[in-house]
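The protein record filed here:
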Amino acid sequence: LSLAIRYCDRCHLVKPDRCHHCSVCDKCILKMDHHCPWVNNCVGFSNYKFFLLFLAYSLLYCLFIAATDLQYFIKFWTNGLPDTQAKFHIMFLFFAAAMFSVSLSSLFGYHCWLVSKNKSTLEVFRAPIFRHRTDKNGFSLGFSKNLRQVFGDEKKYWLLPVFSSLGDGCSFPTCLVNQDPEQASTPGGLNSTSKNENHLFPAKPLRDSQSHLLTDTPSWSETSAKAEKDKVGMSNPALTMENET
């Protein structure tokens, strides 16, 4: 992005864009989001969709348990249950399901927001650096395209634990246009000649013959100076007469 090679001193490898080194796993993770202690693994490009589905499935499961246990939890406080040890299990189960539902809903909602903006948790705290500036929304392509970056183009695979993310994890499309900062400030009314003057270097590499001719600048200067002198001499009538005689 910034035209600088990112190198990992621990892995001794070149790090692609959005790749970071995890100190817990001791390796570089493509499009690293965070290290999750729940699954004892890093969440990145290869398993980010699986992590989102894990949160969704777990949230639905906890909500189902809390909803089905609610009627027995109410009977516990109204003395509608028999006086056995099972009623304490019902109370503990409801509290555990309710607490996990609250924590999972907040975490799942936060990651849904990250997917909609095409960001990672690390990029929220530190914006990625592009060619001319830092932009926290540089990878955002729109809500629909951001979802497809994680879940893929086939909607029938979105809710299934099947890898369907787009890309290879090394390069990602951006919404930024690579512009020259000097050209960005020029008004649109200028002609095309002013734009061509900014191209100081050729678009294609020079051939050996061309590079050899360009490096031979002294001979060119001497030849051009001699040609100018001859041209001046021919334009003078007196010198012309002397040359004829």
Notes: Residues 72 and 90 are 7 Å apart (CA to CA). The two ends are 72 Å apart (CA to CA).
